[in-house]
Amino acid sequence: MKTLLPVIFLALIQTASFAEPPRPAPTRATDWDYWEKLDPLTDKVKQISKADALRYLEASGRSTKTLLGAWITSGLDGFREELIATAPDDPLAIAMVAAEKNTPPDKGLELARRYQKLAPDNGLPWLIESRILFTTKSDREAIVAIREALKRKPPAAFDHEFIASVTAAYRFAGHSEAESRLCAFSNLSQVQVHAIYESHKGLRKTYTGLQKKDPARSDLMSLSFELSKLIDANGIPTLISRLVKNNIENDLIKAGQPPQWGLGEKHIAELKETRAALRELVQSKKIVAVRDDARILEYIDRSQKDGELAAWQWLKSLK
Q1: Burial classification of residue 58, based on how many CB atoms lie within 10 Å of its CB (0-12 exposed, 13-18 middle, 19 or more buried)
Q2: Is the predicted pLDDT of residue 228 greater than 80, yes or no?
Q3: Is the pTM of this model over 0.70?
C-alpha cells in the first residue's frame, strides 16, 4: 500500500543489514519549497536519474536491497525486472514485485506461490495470493487463501528494509539526510497492510451480498475481523495502517458485527480521531514549514519512540 504524505514523516527507520557504500557528501540542500508545494494525493515524489541509480549500483554492488533502492528511486521498470531475476528466491524481492500493481496477475500468482514454498509458516504470501485472486474474480479461491493465511504466523513486513534501501539510494544521489528520508518514507509500500485491506474488501463485497441470517455471512465477517487483528502484528505503525484497521472495524460495525467482538463506540471514536489526524497532517504545512533538517529528524526520532500521532502533537506544540 502506497501511503499518503503522513508516511513521509513516519515513525521508524532502522538500518537494514547490507553494506551501504561510503556516503558521498550531500550536493544539495533540502528543497523545502518543493515539499511545501507537493500534493501528496496527486504528485509523485522526486526521483533520481538513471545515471545516478547506475552509479549507486556500481558503488554498492547489485543485491536485493540495492536493486530495490534503484527501482523505487528511479521508477524504471528495468530495475524491477533485474531485481526479480537476480533474487528469484528472496522474500523481499518476491513480495515487492508480486504486490506491484503493474505486475500481471499470472506473474503475481506465480511469485506468491513460490513465496509460499519458501516461507510456509508466513501468512503474507497467502494474503498476496488472495488479493490477486479477488482481482481476477476468483473469489472462492481467494477466500481459501485467506483461511490458509490465518492458520499461519502474522504476515511478515519489510518496511524497515524498504526504507533503508530507498534512503541509501537517495543519499548516494546527493540528497541531504532529511530529504533522503522524506523521499523514502513517501515511497513506502506497506505490502502487508495492502494485502490485508484488499483481502478484506473482497470479503466485504461477498458478505454484504448475503442475507443477514445466512451463516456464510457471519463466517466471512469473522475472517475480516481476524484480518483486522493482523494490522498491528508487524510493520511500522503508521496513521495509514491505523486507518485501515479502523476502516475494517467500521465496515463490520455497519454490517452488524456480534457484540462479543467488542467493536462499538470506542472504535468509532478512534476512527474519527485517526481520520481527523490524517486530514490535519496531510493539509497542514507545519511539518515542512519548519525548514529545519534537524527538527525533521527529531520528529522522526520522536515518532520512533512515541508513535507518529504523538510526534505530530509534539510538533504542533512548538512555537
Answers
A1: exposed
A2: yes
A3: yes
